[in-house]
Write the structure tokens for this entry.
Amino acid sequence: MAKSNSSPLSLALQGGGAHGAFTWGVLDRLCEEPGLNLQAITATSAGAMNAVAFAAGMAEGGMEGAKASLERFWRVISQKGTPFTAFSLTNSPLSLLPFGPFQAAMAFASMASPYEFNPFDLNPLRDALDEAVDFEAVRAAPLEIFLSATNVETGRVKVFREQEITRDAVLASACLPQTFRAVEIDGHAYWDGGYMGNPSLFPLIYSDAPRDVLLVLLNPISRLGIPKRVPEIMDRLNEISFNASLIGELRAIAFVQKLLDDGMLKQPIISKYKRLNIHAIRGGQVLRDLSLQTKYDTSWGFLTDLRDKGRVAAETWLGTCASYLGTRESSVDLQAEFLDP
């Protein structure tokens, strides 16, 4: 359990498609914990969707409102189906190929861009956000929100915040280019934020967000064994690419913390650096045996099973690591994980 009734906490939520239901479960359990004071969320893709659903509910009804809003959002996601459902690929001639509908859809997506196979720009995620999330409430929530997307032309991360938090900002953060057209906002085109910030941690450094940061990770960072089958190779490539930016930021944070601990930084330089205390709920360990295909599984039974697993993981974290909050210590050994050879 948390140490006191006022443990401020920032959340960092990874993307991962339907696996984001695991994060739903984590948030659902954290909402019930009186010792936590959630003040900021940085998020990407499915994490961004969880963030805005949480914030909208929080604005309207506190923690109970946040819980209800998250469940409403994921119910709508389940009803709308996967992105591929909207394109009716399973009813195309490709569905006659000797593999499943998901593989048929992926094969089709590799041969044609979303500008070609989705001329009407159908997007069930857009429909779900329109139906389940009040963005005026999101912007009114007593919560700092940072949503990351990748600028297609510059290759740089774009962080949406405050009045920039809109439905299109969330869609930009979750725009997989093989599946959706780039999302255009103010003359700039964006793809999924996972390429450059999954999620971005630097906004927490340059804001007044709490120094204690809880990462909710959906993609395994390490995996033993060499993948040899095509699906295994694709799964591992997906994990590596969508963890790369986060690992880079964690290495930088670990390096700065080592400089601070060793007294290597002096005034006035030291005042420019902020210590982040990193904690983690590693959903990747729970989700390790799930294939890439399951990131498109929006069946209610699958989503609620992931939610329940997320609740268990959050309960475990509260019992073992929440006592670190407010102590100026990380419960994750950043140096051992990201600096030591």
Notes: Strands lie at 7-13, 36-43, 144-151, 157-161, 183-185, 188-192, 212-217, 277-282.
